């Protein structure tokens, strides 16, 4: 069975344009940042940002990051740095014609500066290059600030997923951005 899966994965993989991300320096609101693909050595920084943003919780463990970063499935995991310090990151993987944002976090003191929006736009370009029809994500029902940002970027509410977050049983709102009009 595993051999059949690996063969199917190899065949389907040729349809995706999972090329390396070109690191770059950028400006957001007259501030200088550096963006690049996440590597295994970055996981400690990602966990630190998660602890800060999620009040000590770790929605993603070191193992979860390891599995995603080493996956052969089409994916994009980026971090953004200011003065050499990681201050935010985003993860996305392709499922069929959907680019699913798995995780996005920006250090508290840098929230509201456009960093999250920039990272989502990078995922948007990745999704388009992989001929996706949609980008999807889940967000806590209580996280109105994130929902507002997603709506400004064109996401719409889809469904509520009851008790999605296991640590406190909070519901998630699934949001979708449609890339192709029919």
UniProtKB/TrEMBL annotation:
A Pfam family the protein falls into: Acetyltransf_1
Question: What InterPro entries does this protein map onto?
Answer: AcTrfase_RimI/Ard1 (IPR006464), Acyl_CoA_acyltransferase (IPR016181), GNAT_dom (IPR000182)
In this chain the N-acetyltransferase domain maps to: 33-180
Organism domain of life: Bacteria
Question: Any idea which GO molecular function terms this record carries?
Answer: N-acetyltransferase activity
What keywords sit in the KW lines? Acyltransferase, Transferase
In terms of NCBIfam families, this protein maps to: rimI
Q: What is this protein called?
A: Ribosomal-protein-alanine acetyltransferase
Identify the species of origin: Enterococcus moraviensis ATCC BAA-383
């Amino acid at each position: 069975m595993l051999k059949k899966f690996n063969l199917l994965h190899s065949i389907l993989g040729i349809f995706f344009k999972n090329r390396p991300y070109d690191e770059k320096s950028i400006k957001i609101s007259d501030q200088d940042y550096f963006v690049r693909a996440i590597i295994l050595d970055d996981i400690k920084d990602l966990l630190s940002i998660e602890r800060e943003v999620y009040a000590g919780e770790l929605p993603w463990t070191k193992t979860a990051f390891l599995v995603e970063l080493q996956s052969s499935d089409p994916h994009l995991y980026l971090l953004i740095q200011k003065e050499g310090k990681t201050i935010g990151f985003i993860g996305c993987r392709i499922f069929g014609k959907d680019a699913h944002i798995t995780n996005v976090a920006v250090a508290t003191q840098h929230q509201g500066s456009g960093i999250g929006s920039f990272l989502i736009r990078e995922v948007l370009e990745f999704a388009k290059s992989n001929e996706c029809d949609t980008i999807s994500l889940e967000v806590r029902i209580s996280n109105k600030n994130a929902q507002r940002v997603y709506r400004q970027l064109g996401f719409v509410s889809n469904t509520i997923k009851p008790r999605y977050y296991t640590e406190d049983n909070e519901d998630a709102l699934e949001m979708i951005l449609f890339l192709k009009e029919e």
